[in-house]
Amino acid sequence: MRFTNLDMDALRSFVAGIEAGSFAQAADRLGRSTSAVSAQLKKLEEQTGTELVRRSGRGLVPTDGGEVLLSYARRLLNLNDEAVGAVRSPELEGWVRLGIQEDFGETVLPEVLGRFARAHPKVRIEGRIGRNSELREKIASGHLDLALVWDDGASSDAERIAALPLCWLGSAQEEPLWQAARNEPLPLVTLEAPCLLRTLACNRLDSEGLAWRIAFVSPSLSGLWAATAAGLGVALRTPFVRSADVRVLDALQHGLPELPSLGLSLLRPARTESSASRHLATIIRQALHDTLPEAWMSQP
Prior knowledge:
single chain; alpha/beta; five-stranded mixed beta sheet; 10 helices; 12 strands; 41% helix; DNA-binding transcriptional LysR family regulator; transcription regulation
């Protein structure tokens, strides 16, 4: 059987074109001419034997075959870049300290640690799962080299990676015990203060003139999911990694305020960034691209 070796440069142009919505913009990002990028796309279509993109308005969207290839292309490029980084920096040593939100502790963190350890086995990495305020304090005090934090607008120099939708969450088994028409305080399930999402929930309810009460407080997400699943109250969170026993509530149907998206950013201390920290940031970006829906990712 004769195997086809996909062209990595063509794959990179294909991914950049889909993410930018046009191959003219992709050409600008890649420092190439539009005709060169178009030629690479044509080569990729010849290699795969299928049409990969179609026009939608003024932009481009992937065909069914293009969507399949897009997922593989991102993984191939990530592995390629990881391999090149490992070869070019074989003697990278030292240590790097990473802080990450609990929301990503069981999903993104294992992937990040595994990739980094394979690429840089001589670098010691220390990880901390913490709350937003704690991670920001440790970045400011120099006790962390890199942190993945919710973007509350406090740091203008933070690197926005994604924007996750916020939503009201309730039990998947129990009907909410509260309705706006009853004029009863909304029972809230929250994390311990200080908590960015707890504050946001209270402020949103106050702005709509809706009464609320704290029904359950947890120091961890597992406790928050358990209380919400049991029907003790309503939680405000992103839908990412929510418990299977928790569902997204329709805000209009339940008389709850509409919610914005919440930015997810990489935060670094003001001092000079180390090579290990830069490599770790690259792997975090790649892991998030692999994990989060494309619609949530911030465009470069």
